[in-house]
Design goal:
6-stranded mixed β-sheet; alpha/beta; globular; Rossmann fold
Length: about 350
Protein backbone atom coordinates (compact mmCIF):
# COMPACT_ATOMS: atom_id res chain seq x y z
CA UNK A 1 0.00 0.00 0.00
CA UNK A 2 0.96 3.62 -0.31
CA UNK A 3 3.40 5.55 -2.44
CA UNK A 4 6.65 4.00 -3.57
CA UNK A 5 8.25 7.08 -5.13
CA UNK A 6 7.87 5.99 -8.73
CA UNK A 7 5.56 6.48 -11.64
CA UNK A 8 2.97 3.77 -12.05
CA UNK A 9 1.20 3.41 -15.36
CA UNK A 10 -2.06 1.57 -15.64
CA UNK A 11 -4.30 1.02 -18.62
CA UNK A 12 -8.04 0.45 -18.59
CA UNK A 13 -9.52 -1.28 -21.59
CA UNK A 14 -13.18 -1.82 -22.36
CA UNK A 15 -14.32 -4.63 -24.62
CA UNK A 16 -17.56 -6.31 -25.67
CA UNK A 17 -18.93 -9.18 -23.61
CA UNK A 18 -17.39 -12.38 -24.91
CA UNK A 19 -19.26 -15.22 -26.61
CA UNK A 20 -19.18 -18.49 -24.70
CA UNK A 21 -17.41 -21.19 -26.67
CA UNK A 22 -18.38 -24.79 -27.44
CA UNK A 23 -19.01 -27.21 -24.58
CA UNK A 24 -16.27 -29.39 -23.11
CA UNK A 25 -16.61 -32.18 -20.59
CA UNK A 26 -15.05 -32.15 -17.14
CA UNK A 27 -11.33 -32.71 -17.42
CA UNK A 28 -11.45 -32.44 -21.21
CA UNK A 29 -9.44 -29.84 -23.07
CA UNK A 30 -11.63 -26.76 -23.65
CA UNK A 31 -12.53 -25.69 -27.14
CA UNK A 32 -10.53 -22.87 -28.70
CA UNK A 33 -11.52 -19.57 -27.12
CA UNK A 34 -12.91 -16.91 -29.41
CA UNK A 35 -11.26 -13.54 -29.79
CA UNK A 36 -13.03 -10.62 -28.14
CA UNK A 37 -14.37 -8.03 -30.56
CA UNK A 38 -14.66 -4.24 -30.66
CA UNK A 39 -15.62 -1.68 -29.54
CA UNK A 40 -13.38 -1.16 -26.56
CA UNK A 41 -11.51 1.75 -24.98
CA UNK A 42 -8.15 2.27 -23.36
CA UNK A 43 -8.05 4.37 -20.21
CA UNK A 44 -4.39 4.88 -19.40
CA UNK A 45 -3.83 6.01 -15.82
CA UNK A 46 -0.40 7.53 -15.16
CA UNK A 47 0.39 7.95 -11.48
CA UNK A 48 3.42 10.02 -10.50
CA UNK A 49 4.14 9.68 -6.80
CA UNK A 50 6.75 12.44 -6.87
CA UNK A 51 4.48 15.16 -8.26
CA UNK A 52 1.23 13.71 -6.93
CA UNK A 53 -0.42 14.00 -10.36
CA UNK A 54 -2.62 11.36 -11.93
CA UNK A 55 -3.35 11.69 -15.66
CA UNK A 56 -6.10 9.64 -17.32
CA UNK A 57 -6.24 9.28 -21.08
CA UNK A 58 -9.27 7.61 -22.60
CA UNK A 59 -9.11 6.36 -26.20
CA UNK A 60 -11.96 4.40 -27.75
CA UNK A 61 -11.46 1.84 -30.52
CA UNK A 62 -14.03 0.67 -33.04
CA UNK A 63 -16.98 2.65 -31.76
CA UNK A 64 -19.84 3.19 -34.14
CA UNK A 65 -19.83 6.81 -35.21
CA UNK A 66 -16.11 7.29 -34.64
CA UNK A 67 -13.56 7.07 -31.87
CA UNK A 68 -12.73 9.74 -29.33
CA UNK A 69 -9.87 10.65 -27.01
CA UNK A 70 -10.46 12.29 -23.63
CA UNK A 71 -7.75 13.41 -21.16
CA UNK A 72 -8.36 14.18 -17.49
CA UNK A 73 -5.56 15.50 -15.24
CA UNK A 74 -6.01 15.25 -11.47
CA UNK A 75 -3.38 17.45 -9.84
CA UNK A 76 -3.89 15.91 -6.39
CA UNK A 77 -4.77 12.45 -7.69
CA UNK A 78 -2.20 10.51 -5.66
CA UNK A 79 -3.32 12.20 -2.44
CA UNK A 80 -6.96 11.49 -3.25
CA UNK A 81 -6.11 7.88 -4.05
CA UNK A 82 -4.09 7.33 -0.86
CA UNK A 83 -6.60 9.13 1.36
CA UNK A 84 -9.34 6.92 -0.04
CA UNK A 85 -7.40 3.75 0.79
CA UNK A 86 -6.79 4.91 4.38
CA UNK A 87 -10.45 5.90 4.77
CA UNK A 88 -11.58 2.57 3.33
CA UNK A 89 -9.34 0.55 5.65
CA UNK A 90 -10.62 2.49 8.68
CA UNK A 91 -14.21 1.86 7.61
CA UNK A 92 -13.47 -1.83 7.14
CA UNK A 93 -11.95 -2.07 10.63
CA UNK A 94 -15.06 -0.49 12.14
CA UNK A 95 -17.39 -2.87 10.29
CA UNK A 96 -15.16 -5.80 11.27
CA UNK A 97 -15.75 -4.98 14.93
CA UNK A 98 -19.50 -4.30 14.95
CA UNK A 99 -20.81 -5.86 11.66
CA UNK A 100 -22.86 -2.73 10.94
CA UNK A 101 -23.05 -3.32 7.19
CA UNK A 102 -25.88 -0.86 6.66
CA UNK A 103 -23.68 2.01 7.83
CA UNK A 104 -20.73 0.64 5.89
CA UNK A 105 -22.61 0.49 2.57
CA UNK A 106 -24.13 3.94 3.03
CA UNK A 107 -20.65 5.41 3.46
CA UNK A 108 -19.17 3.38 0.62
CA UNK A 109 -21.90 4.49 -1.78
CA UNK A 110 -21.35 8.14 -0.84
CA UNK A 111 -17.55 7.98 -1.09
CA UNK A 112 -17.77 5.93 -4.29
CA UNK A 113 -19.64 8.79 -5.98
CA UNK A 114 -16.99 11.26 -4.84
CA UNK A 115 -14.17 9.07 -6.17
CA UNK A 116 -15.95 8.47 -9.47
CA UNK A 117 -16.48 12.19 -10.02
CA UNK A 118 -12.86 12.90 -9.11
CA UNK A 119 -11.25 10.47 -11.53
CA UNK A 120 -13.78 9.82 -14.33
CA UNK A 121 -15.09 12.89 -16.16
CA UNK A 122 -18.53 13.15 -17.72
CA UNK A 123 -16.91 13.20 -21.16
CA UNK A 124 -15.27 9.88 -20.33
CA UNK A 125 -18.57 8.37 -19.21
CA UNK A 126 -20.17 9.56 -22.43
CA UNK A 127 -17.32 8.13 -24.49
CA UNK A 128 -17.61 4.65 -22.96
CA UNK A 129 -21.37 4.50 -23.46
CA UNK A 130 -22.17 1.19 -25.16
CA UNK A 131 -19.05 -0.77 -24.20
CA UNK A 132 -19.50 -3.92 -22.17
CA UNK A 133 -16.31 -4.55 -20.26
CA UNK A 134 -13.62 -2.62 -18.44
CA UNK A 135 -10.22 -4.29 -18.27
CA UNK A 136 -7.93 -2.57 -15.81
CA UNK A 137 -4.33 -3.20 -16.79
CA UNK A 138 -2.44 -2.68 -13.54
CA UNK A 139 1.29 -2.25 -13.02
CA UNK A 140 1.93 -2.04 -9.27
CA UNK A 141 -1.19 -0.73 -7.54
CA UNK A 142 -4.72 -1.99 -8.20
CA UNK A 143 -6.61 1.03 -9.55
CA UNK A 144 -9.80 1.22 -7.44
CA UNK A 145 -12.25 1.60 -10.33
CA UNK A 146 -14.32 -1.22 -8.77
CA UNK A 147 -15.26 1.15 -5.92
CA UNK A 148 -16.44 4.06 -8.10
CA UNK A 149 -20.12 4.89 -8.29
CA UNK A 150 -22.18 7.00 -10.69
CA UNK A 151 -25.70 7.89 -9.67
CA UNK A 152 -27.31 4.74 -8.31
CA UNK A 153 -24.88 2.32 -9.97
CA UNK A 154 -21.44 0.99 -9.18
CA UNK A 155 -18.97 1.38 -12.03
CA UNK A 156 -18.96 -2.42 -12.53
CA UNK A 157 -22.71 -2.25 -13.17
CA UNK A 158 -22.04 0.11 -16.07
CA UNK A 159 -19.12 -1.95 -17.40
CA UNK A 160 -18.06 -5.21 -15.68
CA UNK A 161 -14.47 -4.84 -14.53
CA UNK A 162 -11.58 -7.24 -15.03
CA UNK A 163 -7.96 -6.60 -14.04
CA UNK A 164 -4.90 -7.72 -16.01
CA UNK A 165 -1.23 -6.87 -16.44
CA UNK A 166 -1.51 -6.82 -20.22
CA UNK A 167 -3.49 -4.66 -22.63
CA UNK A 168 -6.19 -5.80 -25.00
CA UNK A 169 -9.68 -7.30 -24.85
CA UNK A 170 -9.85 -10.25 -22.44
CA UNK A 171 -11.55 -13.60 -22.83
CA UNK A 172 -13.48 -14.45 -19.67
CA UNK A 173 -15.61 -17.17 -21.27
CA UNK A 174 -15.07 -20.59 -19.72
CA UNK A 175 -17.14 -23.64 -20.61
CA UNK A 176 -14.99 -25.91 -18.45
CA UNK A 177 -17.05 -27.97 -15.99
CA UNK A 178 -15.72 -27.26 -12.51
CA UNK A 179 -15.89 -30.37 -10.34
CA UNK A 180 -13.29 -30.06 -7.60
CA UNK A 181 -12.01 -27.62 -4.97
CA UNK A 182 -9.01 -27.49 -2.66
CA UNK A 183 -9.17 -25.35 0.48
CA UNK A 184 -5.64 -24.49 1.59
CA UNK A 185 -5.68 -23.35 5.22
CA UNK A 186 -2.60 -21.20 5.87
CA UNK A 187 -4.11 -19.62 9.00
CA UNK A 188 -4.78 -22.50 11.35
CA UNK A 189 -7.37 -23.05 14.11
CA UNK A 190 -5.61 -20.78 16.65
CA UNK A 191 -5.61 -17.75 14.35
CA UNK A 192 -8.34 -15.13 14.79
CA UNK A 193 -9.30 -15.76 11.14
CA UNK A 194 -8.96 -19.52 11.58
CA UNK A 195 -12.66 -20.26 11.13
CA UNK A 196 -12.55 -19.37 7.43
CA UNK A 197 -11.13 -22.55 5.90
CA UNK A 198 -13.33 -24.95 7.96
CA UNK A 199 -16.34 -22.75 7.23
CA UNK A 200 -15.71 -22.72 3.49
CA UNK A 201 -15.07 -26.46 3.47
CA UNK A 202 -18.29 -27.12 5.40
CA UNK A 203 -20.25 -25.19 2.77
CA UNK A 204 -18.49 -27.02 -0.06
CA UNK A 205 -19.43 -30.32 1.58
CA UNK A 206 -23.09 -29.42 1.04
CA UNK A 207 -22.60 -29.35 -2.74
CA UNK A 208 -23.22 -32.76 -4.28
CA UNK A 209 -21.13 -34.30 -7.01
CA UNK A 210 -17.85 -32.45 -6.50
CA UNK A 211 -14.47 -33.38 -5.10
CA UNK A 212 -13.33 -31.34 -2.12
CA UNK A 213 -10.31 -31.42 0.12
CA UNK A 214 -8.94 -29.22 2.91
CA UNK A 215 -5.26 -29.11 3.88
CA UNK A 216 -3.76 -27.35 6.90
CA UNK A 217 -0.53 -25.86 5.56
CA UNK A 218 1.39 -23.74 8.05
CA UNK A 219 4.99 -23.95 6.84
CA UNK A 220 6.59 -22.51 3.72
CA UNK A 221 8.19 -25.72 2.44
CA UNK A 222 5.09 -27.86 2.94
CA UNK A 223 2.91 -25.18 1.34
CA UNK A 224 5.13 -25.07 -1.75
CA UNK A 225 4.86 -28.84 -1.97
CA UNK A 226 1.07 -28.73 -1.57
CA UNK A 227 0.69 -26.06 -4.25
CA UNK A 228 2.71 -28.11 -6.75
CA UNK A 229 1.52 -31.65 -6.02
CA UNK A 230 -2.19 -31.01 -5.40
CA UNK A 231 -4.63 -30.52 -8.27
CA UNK A 232 -8.13 -29.05 -8.26
CA UNK A 233 -10.29 -26.98 -10.56
CA UNK A 234 -10.32 -24.14 -8.02
CA UNK A 235 -8.07 -23.30 -5.09
CA UNK A 236 -9.49 -21.42 -2.12
CA UNK A 237 -6.48 -19.82 -0.47
CA UNK A 238 -7.17 -18.80 3.14
CA UNK A 239 -4.05 -16.91 4.17
CA UNK A 240 -2.37 -13.77 5.43
CA UNK A 241 -0.56 -11.77 2.79
CA UNK A 242 1.09 -8.65 1.43
CA UNK A 243 0.56 -7.51 -2.19
CA UNK A 244 3.59 -9.50 -3.37
CA UNK A 245 3.77 -12.37 -0.83
CA UNK A 246 1.60 -14.68 1.23
CA UNK A 247 2.32 -16.31 4.57
CA UNK A 248 1.67 -19.95 5.58
CA UNK A 249 1.12 -19.05 9.21
CA UNK A 250 0.94 -15.55 10.65
CA UNK A 251 4.39 -13.93 11.02
CA UNK A 252 6.11 -16.93 9.45
CA UNK A 253 8.35 -16.98 6.34
CA UNK A 254 6.33 -16.13 3.26
CA UNK A 255 6.20 -17.21 -0.37
CA UNK A 256 6.93 -14.24 -2.66
CA UNK A 257 5.05 -13.69 -5.91
CA UNK A 258 8.31 -14.12 -7.82
CA UNK A 259 8.65 -17.61 -6.33
CA UNK A 260 5.03 -18.45 -7.12
CA UNK A 261 5.71 -17.49 -10.74
CA UNK A 262 8.26 -20.31 -10.98
CA UNK A 263 5.95 -22.99 -9.59
CA UNK A 264 3.84 -25.44 -11.58
CA UNK A 265 0.35 -25.27 -10.14
CA UNK A 266 -2.67 -27.25 -11.26
CA UNK A 267 -5.58 -24.90 -10.54
CA UNK A 268 -7.75 -23.31 -13.20
CA UNK A 269 -8.99 -20.56 -10.87
CA UNK A 270 -7.77 -19.23 -7.52
CA UNK A 271 -9.94 -17.45 -4.97
CA UNK A 272 -7.70 -15.79 -2.39
CA UNK A 273 -8.94 -14.07 0.74
CA UNK A 274 -5.43 -12.98 1.74
CA UNK A 275 -5.22 -9.24 2.44
CA UNK A 276 -3.93 -7.25 -0.58
CA UNK A 277 -3.68 -10.29 -2.89
CA UNK A 278 -6.01 -8.48 -5.32
CA UNK A 279 -2.82 -6.87 -6.55
CA UNK A 280 -1.11 -7.00 -9.95
CA UNK A 281 2.06 -8.08 -8.14
CA UNK A 282 0.39 -11.13 -6.62
CA UNK A 283 -1.57 -11.84 -9.80
CA UNK A 284 1.67 -11.96 -11.77
CA UNK A 285 2.82 -14.77 -9.52
CA UNK A 286 -0.19 -17.04 -9.97
CA UNK A 287 -1.64 -16.30 -13.42
CA UNK A 288 0.52 -18.60 -15.50
CA UNK A 289 0.42 -22.18 -16.73
CA UNK A 290 -3.02 -23.67 -16.17
CA UNK A 291 -4.31 -20.84 -13.98
CA UNK A 292 -6.56 -18.42 -15.90
CA UNK A 293 -8.38 -16.44 -13.22
CA UNK A 294 -7.74 -14.91 -9.78
CA UNK A 295 -10.39 -13.50 -7.47
CA UNK A 296 -8.89 -11.59 -4.55
CA UNK A 297 -9.15 -8.53 -2.30
CA UNK A 298 -7.36 -5.27 -3.10
CA UNK A 299 -7.17 -4.37 0.59
CA UNK A 300 -7.57 -5.87 4.07
CA UNK A 301 -10.20 -8.56 4.38
CA UNK A 302 -11.46 -11.05 6.95
CA UNK A 303 -12.14 -14.74 7.23
CA UNK A 304 -15.86 -14.25 7.78
CA UNK A 305 -16.06 -12.30 4.52
CA UNK A 306 -14.33 -15.21 2.79
CA UNK A 307 -16.94 -17.60 4.11
CA UNK A 308 -19.85 -15.43 2.88
CA UNK A 309 -18.25 -14.91 -0.53
CA UNK A 310 -17.55 -18.63 -0.93
CA UNK A 311 -21.03 -19.60 0.23
CA UNK A 312 -22.52 -17.49 -2.57
CA UNK A 313 -19.88 -18.07 -5.26
CA UNK A 314 -19.23 -21.82 -5.19
CA UNK A 315 -22.80 -23.09 -5.73
CA UNK A 316 -22.98 -20.95 -8.88
CA UNK A 317 -19.59 -22.13 -10.14
CA UNK A 318 -20.33 -25.81 -9.58
CA UNK A 319 -23.79 -25.42 -11.14
CA UNK A 320 -22.12 -24.54 -14.44
CA UNK A 321 -21.55 -20.79 -14.48
CA UNK A 322 -18.09 -19.50 -15.37
CA UNK A 323 -15.94 -17.87 -12.65
CA UNK A 324 -16.62 -14.47 -14.24
CA UNK A 325 -20.37 -15.04 -14.37
CA UNK A 326 -20.43 -16.40 -10.82
CA UNK A 327 -18.41 -13.48 -9.46
CA UNK A 328 -20.68 -10.85 -10.97
CA UNK A 329 -23.81 -12.76 -9.99
CA UNK A 330 -22.61 -12.50 -6.38
CA UNK A 331 -21.82 -8.81 -6.84
CA UNK A 332 -25.49 -8.19 -7.64
CA UNK A 333 -26.01 -8.66 -3.90
CA UNK A 334 -24.47 -5.23 -3.29
CA UNK A 335 -26.31 -3.31 -6.01
CA UNK A 336 -29.09 -0.87 -5.17
CA UNK A 337 -29.44 1.07 -1.93
CA UNK A 338 -29.40 -1.75 0.64
CA UNK A 339 -27.30 -4.82 1.32
CA UNK A 340 -26.76 -7.11 4.29
CA UNK A 341 -23.58 -8.48 2.70
CA UNK A 342 -20.14 -7.86 4.18
CA UNK A 343 -17.67 -5.88 2.08
CA UNK A 344 -17.12 -7.80 -1.16
CA UNK A 345 -16.66 -4.55 -3.10
CA UNK A 346 -12.91 -4.79 -2.51
CA UNK A 347 -12.72 -8.18 -4.24
CA UNK A 348 -11.59 -7.94 -7.87
CA UNK A 349 -11.32 -10.30 -10.83
CA UNK A 350 -7.93 -10.82 -12.50
CA UNK A 351 -7.40 -12.55 -15.82
CA UNK A 352 -4.27 -13.37 -17.85
Amino acid sequence: MGSQGKTVKISLIFALVFTLFATAGAGAAPAARKTAVKPYADLVVSRNDKTGVVVLTLQTHGKKGGDVKVVNTISDGVTQWENFIKWYEDLFALAYMDSNYDRMWKQLRKRGVTMGEKFISQDMLKAINGVSMLVVVDDVYPFPADTFRFGDKWFFEIAPIVHSRTKGPKDVSDDYKYKSALVLDCQGPKDREGLEAPGVFADLSKIDGIGKKMILSMKKDETIKNLEKEAADILHLATHAHPDEFFPGRNKPGIPAAELAEMKMNFRTILSTGCHTGSPLFASGVLHGKTRFLIASMYTTSGKDGIVLGRSFYPLLFAGKSPFESFYEVKKSISGDKSDFPDILRFVFFVK
